Amino acid sequence: xxxxxxxxxxxxxxxxxxxxxxxxxxxxxxxxxxxxxxxxxxxxxxxxxxxxxxxxxxxxxxxxxxxxxxxxxxxxxxxxxxxxxxxxxxxxxxxxxxxxxxxxxxxxxxxxxxxxxxxxxxxxxxxxxxxx
Length: 132
Prior knowledge:
This protein is of the alpha/beta class. The protein has a single domain, classed as Rossmann fold (3-Layer(aba) Sandwich). Helices cover about 40% and strands about 20% of the residues. The protein has helices spanning about 15-30, 40-50, 65-70, 90-95, 110-130, and strands at about 10-15, 35, 55-60, 80-85, 100-105. It has a five-stranded parallel beta sheet.
């Protein structure tokens, strides 16, 4: 993935330690910096501090759900996201969560390879865009 420029950075917002470990390993394998947060508050702090190239967001966190997290990020709509949810989201929910380029994955129906493909495709578009 690295083209000689700065390595892309993904903020992985996930409270399940095993899933978080899998996601970090996948990103690291592609020379992507993976920063993790286990709570919504930690994710908000990191979102503004590190300016990630992409958010990989679990919708249901112990202290702050993904809707509140996305609402607080409206100041910077350029950050693409991949949102993982255990539930099927309806069109209204998806519209509320959309922030820049947003992909939605349902955990029970999404294989790890599909998550990897979505994340890498979005990162590739960010890395090759002229504003980075």
